[in-house]
Write a structure and sequence with these properties.
130 residues; alpha/beta; four-stranded parallel beta sheet; 5 helices; 49% helix; 18% strand
Length: 130
């Protein structure tokens, strides 16, 4: 039976307190695991910007996945990070990643999409400053 670790993230405290986003992400990931008849060995979440590299939930998800030889499941690729370099470091950590919104992702698409996620973050920063 394949093992999975679920990771969910929202950026704002307001989203985290309301559960908006986190509950939907969790349900999407759980549905995927059930569909493939897998086993969930951990569920982790963060209420923190995807640009931050010090997200405790992500650190714990990576550790749990390594310890259990499990795949980390994300509802959406942009929940991984909004920092392309950090996204690649996670991808290259030896842990398998699965994105429910891009189940057949390849290295080219991964590169493009993590660059777009970072660009969206940069646009948001620019809009806030303006």
């Amino acid at each position: 039976m394949e093992k999975f670790v679920i990771y969910c993230r929202v950026s704002s405290v307001k989203q985290g307190q309301s559960g908006l986003g986190l509950d939907d992400q969790l349900n999407t990931c759980r549905e995927h695991v059930a569909k493939v008849e897998g086993k969930i060995v951990g569920e982790f979440q963060d209420v923190k910007s995807g640009s931050k590299r010090t997200r405790q939930g992500m650190i714990e998800a990576l550790s749990c996945a390594k310890e259990n030889d499990a795949t980390i499941v994300f509802a959406k690729l942009d929940r991984l990070a909004r920092d392309a370099e950090y996204s690649y470091s996670i991808r290259n950590s030896g842990v398998q990643l699965y994105f429910c919104d891009f189940p057949e992702i390849n290295s080219l698409m991964f590169g493009i999409l993590v660059a777009v996620a970072q660009y969206e973050r940069e646009l948001g920063i620019s809009r806030t400053k303006d």
